[in-house]
Amino acid sequence: MIEPLLRVEGLTKYYGTRLGCADVSFELWPGEVLAIVGESGSGKTTLLNSLSATLEPSSGRTLYRMRDEQWRNIYELSEAERRFLVRTDWGFVHQNPADGLRMNVSAGANVGERLMAVGDRHYGHIRETALDWLGRVEIAADRIDDQPRSFSGGMRQRLQIARNLVTGPRLVFMDEPTGGLDVSVQARLLDLLRGLVGELGLAAIVVTHDLAVARLLSHRMMVMKDGRVIEAGLTDRVLDDPREPYTQLLVSSILQV
Amino acid sequence: MRFFSRLVEPRGRGTQASTRSPSWFDRLTMRALEMREFGGEIGK
Predict the structure, then answer these.
(1) Distance CA B36, CA B44 (A)
(2) Is the pLDDT at A78 greater than 90, yes or no?
(3) Which of A65, A105, A184, B35 is 20 to 30 Å from A14 at the Cα level?
(4) Is the CB of A15 inside 8 Å of chain B's CB atoms?
(5) Looking at beta carbons, which residues of chain A come within 8 Å of B27?
């Protein structure tokens, strides 16, 4: 029987007296992509950081089904266990690629380091796998020894994706993966992401304020406002038939060109 | 001119991988590039 990968129960985060997010509960299934949408300050990044164990919530818990089928509360993991999980079974694609890449080492090393974290020590194999992944994210093989600081914004983001996916994670967190890129680059990146997510059967949680990104990538979505989830459901249902007035406003405010 | 070239970090044959890189992978790449001069191939 298939079980969920992630189970979130009553997650609440306060910054002092200010509310970050309140009472969020949901389940994420293997291979499912969940989009969290909302305007700036609605609590979506707080929620993502709490889910990825970057922030400790004020209350609530997040249970993750480990590879040995054991359910663990991610906030009760030891630091070593948490680091291992983050390096191997999870990926985190930041909005700014510089946050997720090491800018002063080569593209090959950026991908290779994740492989070394899962125990690969053979230089030839690491290089071959790095080359394969650069090809999959459409970066020319002859750029493998170049540093990401000489790459364009789109290439950096694609490199960050390769770095995250090379270890075959089961769950990937994405924070505005196409933010800051121009529209044509965004479209290609989304196409690439959608292909990889489908091909690898990844579960992903994507935070975005762009409803088009949610429409293209996600199966389900949650709409947040003032730290609370106000509407959740299948992406097509929420976007085509929004029930909450705020969601209706969001959907109707998409620019029609 | 000679003074200036000494300030620039040595780069390996058109790549930005460097012997001073903090990455083990990059330092091995540089060694492989040197080996290639003697008929070796990177990663083999």
Answers:
(1) 10
(2) yes
(3) A65
(4) no
(5) none
